[in-house]
Amino acid sequence: MDPPAAESPALAAIVLLLFSMSLLLWAGVLVRGARGGSAIDWRRRRRVPWGPAAVGLPLLLTAMPLLTLASRGEVAPDPRPVDIADAATVTGAYLGFIFLAVLVVSSHQTTSRSDFGMPAVGERSLLRDALLGMAACLAALPLVYGVQGLVVNGLELDASHPMLEALAAASLTQKLSAAWLAVVVAPLMEEFAYRVLLQGWLERFARRTAWWPLITSAALFALAHQGQGYAPIALGVFGLVIGYVYRQTHRLMPCVAMHALFNGLSFGLALWMAG
């Protein structure tokens, strides 16, 4: 996705609104910091019980696009619009991976809902967690786009995105299928893999305030999007912010909501640019 640009009054108004909301959120963060608090309160929990075998899923997600590109001798894949059948296949495969990972992990050690980032039975926190994730996304936008813009312009990278041409030629059904995968399926799968399984396991060996588990999960998360233009730049930075949210909350919902909103905004902008 390209950095936002005021190509029309409507787009400029949307960018201004998002930027204003981000400034308000950062003002709140600064106030909390001045009072000795953190941006997000840390929630006490136990360390996850699983071992290194649980990180197979995030490693698989990272390796698949890299191996695909290497086997084809390509720097970037030739994107094509997805249809309903593609969306259904990917959705089923991803849900199957999640179910299998939970089954394998739970069969070797005692686990609880909280280990997988889920609230306790009867705890009504999903909406609150979702709102927290959406607020974190809005706060992260200037940072993510700022770093991406500096890198793309500083290194004079090609600012085109391989998905724009595919979206321009896609039918309404194909666009809806792509939106479903980008906004619902991918955030759920990737946050479960990279934050719950991988970062949760890495945090077993780190101090509570350590950053290296966040950096590791964010780096692999970015590599998993290799071949999608300059997307790994933005997603690497964004992955750090999501990692911080997960470290503080140990909840899956804020991370999924944050990722879903980011992908939704990105997809909407891509549709706008593709015409």
TrEMBL record:
- Keyword Transmembrane helix (UniProt): yes
> InterPro entries recorded for this chain?
Rce1/LyrA-like_dom
GO aspect biological process, one term = CAAX-box protein maturation
Molecular function per GO = endopeptidase activity
Per UniProt, residues of the CAAX prenyl protease 2/Lysostaphin resistance protein A-like domain are 176-264
A Pfam family per the record: Rce1-like
Q: Keywords for this entry?
A: Hydrolase, Membrane, Protease, Transmembrane, Transmembrane helix
- Can you say what this protein is called? CAAX amino terminal protease self-immunity
Question: Which ranges does the record mark as transmembrane?
Answer: 12-31, 52-72, 84-105, 126-147, 167-188, 209-224, 230-246, 253-274
| Originating organism | Botrimarina hoheduenensis
